[in-house]
Design goal:
This is Glycosyl transferase group 1. InterPro entries: Glyco_trans_4-like_N. By secondary structure, the protein is of the alpha/beta class. The protein is built from 14 helices and 15 strands. The radius of gyration is 22 Å and the shape is elongated.
Length: about 375
């Protein structure tokens, strides 16, 4: 019997930090400890045979009880893959399914929380009541950062001894190719949503280009804000010393939107960039729970400029592995990026310390061991 039967709507090859988190954790736990029930997308194929991944359509397309498909799929899968605990990959709606198994089959379950899921669950009083019930009945709550832990305590009044922090880790494969960029390169890798701060870097570019005229900003990823960000880049002007006139940063090729890339291409950009920048912020229903991309950049010895929001301040240590700024302070953001582009020794120092920290503190084997010990303590 496995230890954990994880039910999740997000799992590779779908793009996103939550899916990457579950994949890394599953790899570290091993097939003898975890089985994964994940959403079935036609475009997805599981390339990793070391973990049992069951693909089913988990949500109905409409109706008030969209989770009924997940309930049915879980019941069937547990017959052939019995486990001691259900793992709730999304507080809502997966938590409802776990709650039903708890009441009708006395099945214990644990809940994974990442930050945004908590805020969204508390956006409506009905959702919050259900989410509170799920949290109270769970055997253990697994959070991805101290920041997320503080949200759990604030919104659900869960004591700390019922929670454990299992940090995301950088799962970075070696890159055999190298992408050479003539221009000093600022890189962001993210889903293009408002809180990621891509717009703030674009608006800071004219100030950056005054000090580093040859710099470019490369954005890897896609999302609902891409059109708006493209328009912003089209209307953000700087003085181009090559032609002696003002131009938009987009027309001059100083902002490049590459869209979603394959994994190897993303790693090549990590390797070739000079500075990784993601000045994240928080909103009423969204927050950066941690930020795996910060660790991935650090694994390539790249200094990071991050926003002082959510778990980003745990992923990036100010003046030790990067620079943490107020994302609303455009001048501070521009100065921090420009400083790193102009001072290779500082980039090297911060990058080396960032990689050393990742290799020491953010290893999946260590994080998985803590989770197993916590679950064994619940026996």
């Amino acid at each position: 019997m496995n230890t954990l039967f994880l039910i999740t709507l997000e799992y590779p090859p779908s793009i996103g930090g939550v899916g990457a988190y579950y994949h890394g954790l599953a790899q570290a736990l091993g097939s003898d400890r975890i089985t994964v029930l994940a959403s079935d997308y036609r475009s997805q194929k599981d390339t990793d045979s070391s973990i049992t991944v069951i693909r089913k359509k988990l949500l109905a397309t409409r109706g008030p009880f969209r989770w009924w498909r997940c309930l049915w799929a879980t019941a069937r899968a547990l017959r052939s893959h019995p486990s001691r605990y259900l793992g709730v990959g999304q507080l809502l709606p997966i938590g409802i399914v776990a709650l039903l198994f708890y009441f009708f089959q006395h099945k214990r379950f644990i809940v994974f929380c990442h930050g945004m899921d908590i805020l969204q669950a508390c956006s409506h009083w009905r959702k919050k009541i259900i989410a509170s019930w799920v949290m109270q009945k769970s055997s253990l709550i697994v959070v991805n950062s101290q920041s997320t832990l503080s949200l759990v305590r604030e919104y659900f009044h869960i004591p700390s001894h019922r929670c454990i922090v299992v940090y995301p880790c950088a799962d970075v494969e070696p890159v055999n190719t190298f992408r050479f960029e003539e221009r000093p390169t600022i890189l962001s890798v993210a889903r293009l949503v408002a809180r990621k701060g891509i717009d703030r870097v674009i608006l800071a570019l004219p100030q950056i280009l005054l000090k580093v005229p040859s710099a470019q900003y490369v954005v890897v990823g896609d999302g609902p804000e891409r059109s708006a960000l493209t328009r912003l880049a089209q209307t953000t002007n700087f003085f181009d010393t090559d032609i002696g006139a003002f131009r938009s940063v987009l027309d001059a090729g100083r902002v490049r939107f590459l869209g979603a890339l394959d994994r190897v291409s993303v790693l090549e950009w990590y390797q070739s960039c000079d500075v990784f920048a993601l000045p994240v912020s928080a909103s009423s229903d969204d927050i950066e729970g941690f930020g795996i991309v910060f660790l991935e950049a650090a694994a390539f010895e790249k200094p990071v400029v991050a926003g002082n929001s959510g778990g980003a301040v745990e992923a990036v240590l100010d003046q030790e592995t990067g620079i943490v700024v107020d994302p609303e302070n455009r001048g501070a953001l521009a100065d921090s990026i420009s400083h790193l582009l102009l001072h290779p020794d500082e980039r090297k120092r911060l990058g080396a310390q960032a990689r050393a920290r990742v290799m020491k503190d953010f290893r999946w084997e260590h994080q998985a061991r803590m989770l197993i010990e916590a679950l064994e303590g619940e026996e």
